[in-house]
């Protein structure tokens, strides 16, 4: 037996020993869960047997309370033990399948010999609880595995830096207790393992990458210093993966103080949410909160407006070129989302401190109770240096006091008497009882009938005034809509506000204004108006904050506007932010002129900010990356991971019927070659529907729309902007014709669609291919043409 065979046998033996240990642990834990469950059932069943219930006097009642509390505590302690044992059991079951994936032998400077450190998705101690059979990949010592090749190395611990030397670094593929492969590895975490992982078929769910995290990704995952972490990375460079492993890392590192509810991830859409939702549970952690900016806007504004969502806006931008307002709308999207417009909005809000806020009168029973002019006077009588929200709170307080007076006066009005007559029996009984109680207390005599009428009148008026009081408390006397509208209705005001921002000067402003006014008057808020509107609302009402959340992740951050960054920062004042994005995938029209994370970094101090760049792309094969990197400026910096595969194809067809037939044949061939998820990517939703209609007659294929919440492996038709962030075994670009992609502004969308492909990429066009392919060298794809 050669030395390596012997080594392998030893390793297989160790796997078996560890698996036996895990299996013993599972048996113990199952028994523990069983015993605790029986305890819980028993306690619940006999809960009242051990409690003495006696409410005869205060002392007895307190004793009863204490006795119930004690019993409840015993129960909740048992329930906690049950949860703990169940969690441990689940972890052991996960380890059973593949106990570890890596090993390093580390010789610590101050120690005589080296220690073998095996890394897995959770820690496991030997049966005496003395030595680690497996270290959690997030333990401080495990960082050596990701950061160093054999040779000198060190790692940070809470008590200082530990230095030494790595003498061996090894990777394993263990499945169902069998050691399938092992490799000794040098500089990076081995290509062999990455080849194996990346060569697999796409899934409808993202997978964890703990076994193959790369050094530059590890830096992002373990960063604890920065308030703002910016990750800018090429398509497929592992930004989303790094973000999710980072969540898992933080939950481990701060397990005593941080819970999954204190972490929020903003993602582009609900489909993406579902795509990434299995990574953390796979690692034994609970999922963080997931949301979208649209959900937040809906929560804040959904009652006042019908809100356009970002995908509707996108579909408009891509399809409505012939509409008369198109250019004005595009200009509105660009201007209103920009950092200079954020300054304009701030300037407007500053002016409003001195005058111009529009107020709503407070009405009562079809009349005006307090006029808007009076509220305005009240507001502007306060010191103008006080922030607006503080002054609003003072106004609300004053208004509530006024309302109290008015309420008192109202009681003698005839309508009140009429309503009192109409009250039902219950109200009278309640009033009678209340009177009796009071009579008892005061021990005086009075005219019962008058008192009763008075009480009932008070009750009626109070009930009617409740909505008034509520509306004052929630500051509804501020007419935010009208104040926002005023900016676009008063041309002179807007000109003044824009005068300091030359980059916003545009001949389109009159058209932008009339478009905005038209939408507002119809109760609609366009996607580009939502963030500035919310921003103004905050400046007037005060910020809504969530102090619980400690970490906020923004994925696909290139799609966020200056306002959105500011709003999210304000919303989570105690959170650290991790912002991940790729400017080459900035598909929304608003991002076109703002190609940096300058806006978000300006929200934090420079010393609180760190930026990381990921240039290596893992998703696609080498031929696909060679092709896609030529589609965008700066693409030469993208480094492909060396995974072989088929060259992309670009096929010319001569008719729609031929296009359908070619795609059907292609999908069938791809399926026959073992590809599980094959996506036909169209530019727009309208085109997706059309493509689906013709393909579905000949193939099983699913249409993905904005309302699809999750998708399975299989054949699908999907609009480009919904495919953001996800990946497929093979991508078929439905229509790469000159007619379809005719604008420079569509370059990033085109690039985003092509970069979704893991193993194969096929493009089709009619007549002439899009100019976006002009600078792609002919040697990086195969050109095909059907016989005419
Ligand atoms: N270290 C790694 N080991 C194994 N797979 C990796 C690694 N890094 C990235 N990947 C794989 O590469 C693919 C792309 O990763 P991910 O989606 O995280 O990239 P991204 O930068 O968010 O991409 P995009 O911006 O295009 O949406 C995924 O299949 C992921 O599992």
TrEMBL record:
GO molecular function: 3'-5' DNA helicase activity; ATP binding; DNA binding; hydrolase activity
PROSITE patterns found in the cross-reference section: UVRD_HELICASE_ATP_BIND
Domain UvrD-like helicase ATP-binding, first and last residues per copy: 212-621
Cross-referenced InterPro entries: DNA_helicase_UvrD/REP, HelD_bacillota, P-loop_NTPase, UvrD-like_ATP-bd, UvrD-like_helicase_C
SUPFAM superfamilies xrefs: P-loop containing nucleoside triphosphate hydrolases
Listed name of the protein: DNA helicase
GO CC annotations on file: cytosol
Top-level division of the source organism's lineage: Bacteria
Organism: Brevibacillus parabrevis
Alphabetized NCBIfam families for the sequence: HelD_BACSU (NF041464)
Listed Pfam families: UvrD-helicase, UvrD_C_2
Keywords tagged on the record: ATP-binding, Coiled coil, Helicase, Hydrolase, Nucleotide-binding
Positions bound to ATP: 233-240
UniProt-listed GO biological process terms: recombinational repair
